[in-house]
Specification:
The relative contact order is 0.11. Strands 4-3-2-1-5-6-7 form a seven-stranded parallel sheet. It contains twelve helices and 13 strands. It is an alpha/beta fold and about 325 residues long. Strand 12 and strand 13 form a beta hairpin. The chain folds into two domains: about 200 residues, inorganic pyrophosphatase (n-terminal core), CATH 3.90.1640.10; about 120 residues, Roll (Diaminopimelate Epimerase, Chain A, domain 1), CATH 3.10.310.30.
């Protein structure tokens, strides 16, 4: 355990109400960490609200069957939460991000939050959220950090805590195949399984219930793959037209980038997703010592050495030119 959790334990013990939030287009590590932390806090008799800038993506909706994650929104929307409700709470905890841009509409709530702010994260970021940080940038998933925090607080890890944390760690490690996996990963997983996590059930929910639209979109992503830098760099893209024509969602691009690393000789993979005509999501992956986080940071993004991302303020074509030129130059 590389983080000293005692200061956060003291913060938690000395306050009664908490709001939890994470990044937009949340993944299982984000939502799983929020849900597990909420259960841990409630076990201590705390009041908890989970509020994100957008809904839980449909393809991971299984992780939140009771719809505990509320969405910042306008009055009258089902499950919406208003900033004025959140500002009455004592402590705000941001999990799985420490970057302003990733918070989306929740960023303004965080900036104006009058109470104590805390970050629990495993990503590299230079942003100052005005929070007390509990970060381990070498950790494979925020989910493992939440497990450690729960244990430091002396909370029993129940199946309701174990399931989302197992999903968090499993997805952020590509089902345990990424280089971030280490001995501590499997020791944590063993504790979660002993506490009631169901690996076959979680795997099935994650990877064996795709929509037909998602598969059609995957076909287009694969069809758009381009080899560069003598087969060391592979990239692909997906446009809003692809989403409309297949009926797929933006979140259906999840994990698609990993297919580019199945090609022999691939070192760096880049996926460009058109969010709007002048807004492109760029995901980067490396399976060598090549530092994709350094590339993402040049454009205002962040992440890890082997996995990073950025929201590029431009078209897909502009993003491709800028980012791929940077990768080519760095590859040499």
């Amino acid at each position: 355990m590389s983080i000293d959790w005692q200061p956060l334990c003291e913060i938690i013990k000395s306050h009664d109400s908490f709001v939890l939030t994470s990044h937009c287009r949340a993944d299982c590590d984000a939502v799983g960490s929020e849900l597990a932390l909420a259960q841990i806090l409630r076990a201590l008799g705390k009041t908890v609200v989970i509020a994100n800038g957008d809904p839980v993506p449909e393809h991971i909706g299984f992780i939140d069957p009771e719809s505990q994650v509320r969405v910042l929104g306008q009055s009258g929307q089902d499950g919406a939460v208003q900033p004025k409700e959140l500002w009455k709470i004592e402590v705000l905890i941001v999990v799985d991000t420490s970057a302003w841009v990733q918070l989306g509409p929740m960023a303004e709530v965080v900036k104006a939050f009058p109470g104590e702010r805390v970050i629990v994260d495993h990503h590299v970021s230079q942003d100052d959220l005005g929070a007390v940080e509990f970060k381990e940038e070498t950790a494979e998933a925020t989910g493992r950090l939440i497990l450690e925090l729960g244990e430091a607080l002396g909370v029993e890890i129940t199946p309701e805590i174990a399931m989302p944390l197992f999903a968090a760690i499993a997805t952020d490690t590509g089902w345990f195949r990424f280089s971030s996996v280490k001995e501590e990963t499997f020791l944590a997983l063993a504790r979660l399984v002993a506490a009631g996590a169901d690996p076959p059930g979680i795997f099935s929910a994650l990877y064996e219930r795709h929509s037909l639209a998602r598969l059609h979109l995957r076909g287009r992503i694969l069809d758009n793959i381009v080899s560069d830098a003598e087969g060391r760099l592979f990239s692909t893209h997906v446009t809003q037209a692809d989403f409309r024509e297949t009926g797929a969602l933006t979140t259906d691009t999840e994990d698609a980038i990993n297919a580019l690393h199945t090609v022999a000789g691939s070192e760096v993979a880049v996926l460009f997703v058109e969010l709007e005509p002048d807004k492109t999501k760029v995901s980067l992956r490396s399976r060598t010592d090549f530092d994709v986080q350094a590339i993402a940071a040049r454009f205002g993004g962040g992440g890890h050495k082997a996995a990073a991302g950025v929201t590029f303020p431009g078209s897909v074509e502009q993003a491709q030119q800028a980012v791929l030129d940077a990768v080519r130059a760095a590859l040499g």
